[in-house]
Amino acid sequence: MSANKGWWVPPEGEDSVSQKFLRKTRESPLVPVGLGGCLAVAAYRIYRLKARGSTKMSIHLIHTRVAAQACAVGAVMLGAVYTMFRDYIKRTAQDPGEK
């Protein structure tokens, strides 16, 4: 099987996958941070799976899921606070005469 790297080309006028990812990252920068946090927590907890001691597997997996979800929710909350700051506080500080 040959490795044809140009097997899929986006239709005319559409972005490639990497361009779309970079554009969406610029629009909401904390989404990749949340995803990275989830992956880091999951990787660490899987690595620590050997040293879990007498803890049941189901409890270990539940703790892993909760920690990964906490990273994702934390990133969403930081993104919401950042958006509120950008839209309301920063904008009103720049335009004090309008209202």
Automatic annotation (TrEMBL):
Transmembrane parts of this sequence: 30-47, 67-85
InterPro entries tied to this protein: Hypoxia_induced_domain (IPR007667), RCF1 (IPR050355)
Main location: mitochondrion
Keyword S-adenosyl-L-methionine among record annotations: no
Keyword Transmembrane: yes
GO biological process, one term: mitochondrial respirasome assembly
UniProt protein name: HIG1 domain family member 1B
Organism field: Callorhinus ursinus (Northern fur seal)
